[in-house]
Amino acid sequence: MLAESFSQVCDDWEHYLQCKYVPVNPVESFRTYDVAKPSVVKLYKEQHENQTVDFVLKSRKKFSQLDKAHMGIWEALEMLNELTDESDNDTELSQIEHCLQTAEALRKDGFDDWMVLTGLIHDLGKLLYYFGAEGQWDVVGDTFPVGCRFSEKIVYPEFFKSNPDYNNPAYNTLCGIYEPNCGLDNVFMSFGHDEYMYMVAENYLPEEALYIIRYHSFYGQHRENAYTHLMNERDHEMMKWVKIFNSYDLYSKSDAPPNIPELKPYYQALIRKFFPDEINW
Ligand SMILES: O[C@H]1[C@H](O)[C@@H](O)[C@H](O)[C@@H](O)[C@H]1O
Ligand SMILES: [Fe+2]
Ligand SMILES: [Fe+2]
What we know:
InterPro entries: Inositol_oxygenase (IPR007828). The chain is mainly alpha-helical. The chain has 12 helices and 2 strands, in the order H-H-H-H-E-H-H-H-H-H-H-H-H-E.
């Protein structure tokens, strides 16, 4: 099932480049963190204070075992439905609704199966909240590299001042522990649902889908371009997909809630094209 080359995955790249999701609400009404809910501010304070190199290494080790559950994708979506994302300032809908909204918006614009499926599952990693996460701060919210200087372009940069890595000379230079242009593959991102879902889906999806899943919360780069110095050529190619995906992830939040029972058969069939009945979590 793994796609071997870019052209195999995407037969109509030019078409996709034209696709710009047009939100119902004005673009400026999204991600307005200066007027955020108190839960959002609290979440980012905890996240920025606690995501250290040590913490990320421990979390990667703990969750890469994939020994937390054995279940199917649709089952996981239903389980996720119980969770309200405290970092999200833009939607009050449940996560299954958000996942379906993203997938539906992609489907309407004619994207390939793998991309629609990516929309459906991109936030499923939030299940790690039930699998022994410390709280929501190591599950949701935007992500960023650790082990190098925290960018001022990240939301609420002031909270990083209380992160123990902030004053560590090994970690607080522009590239920190990394070589310039080493590639994001070699960079430790703050731990959360992106990295976890990447681990879960690694054997089943094409490279582009996995890249989107792994970096969709990395607004510091896909929106702010604050970490270009760590990227290699592959990242530049792949990041184009993340940018396209982001419009659908973010702006579809203004659409009407999807009809879950009506959509279920289509998405179950789509899941079966890529995943076995049950996978390890
Ligand atoms: O609040 C949201 C939410 O947690 C999303 O799932 C994540 O991808 C975004 O980056 C974040 O801003
Ligand atoms: Fe997400
Ligand atoms: Fe999302």
